[in-house]
Amino acid sequence: MTRLLAIVLGVALFGCGTTGTSNKPGPPQKVDRLAELHTQLGLGYLREGRYETAWKRLSRALEIEPHYAAAHSAMALLHEQLDEPQEAEAHYRRALALNPSDSASHNNFGRFLCAQGRSTDAEAEFLKAVANPLYDSPEIAYTNAGLCLYAGGDLGKAEGYLRRALQINPNIPVALLKMASVTLQKGHPLPARAYLQRYQALGRQSAESLWLGVRIERLLGDQNAAASYTMLLKNNFPDSNETRLLLESDSNQKPSGR
Known about the structure:
The protein is an all-alpha fold. The protein has a domain at about 170-250: Tetratricopeptide repeat domain (Serine Threonine Protein Phosphatase 5, Tetratricopeptide repeat, Alpha Horseshoe), CATH 1.25.40.10. It has 14 helices and no strands. Helix 3 runs antiparallel to helix 4 (about 70-80).
């Protein structure tokens, strides 16, 4: 049940599929089988975007079993999707009060708090997730912590968490991309190139990665590589913010005419 919940919750974690989590807590919570079934159905409807039907199923699960942590976690996500943060937070807190060893819920609550701009509280939840020695996906919580701190401008902490994530799993695309960005911002284009190449080796390409490649190669003096990234960015993502930044950069570099 925890794994099923994690798969659905993972969809919303920083917009990438790598953020789904699961863990192996202590003794499983004893719940009514019908409440569990309604929760599973509610999660399915939630995944399909059928929010009203999901709400009915999850509400029924909680009517049958008010102390069912997984149902509260699922209801928290539903309220997030409905842009009801107060209700979402209440259900996250209830779920964790009922099952404090559930690393998946700590991770997802951390993601929620980060989206609310509460990076300090979010970091604490991510650390609670990885503190559980039975958590089988700590790299996910470390990645989310790194992304959260990166968004908050704390590059030092962000780098530390992203490194921990990549030590556990070297092939997390979003962690590799953000490490390339962090390393470049710290003035180290050569290792930034290495992180970006590892990201690209996974078959990934985005406006963010291409713009990052342009800046890296310009700093390293490889004009051919920079031109290649430039062409790909303009052709594949012409309306992106990164292409706008590229055009602004090119305009600023042109000598003014007399």
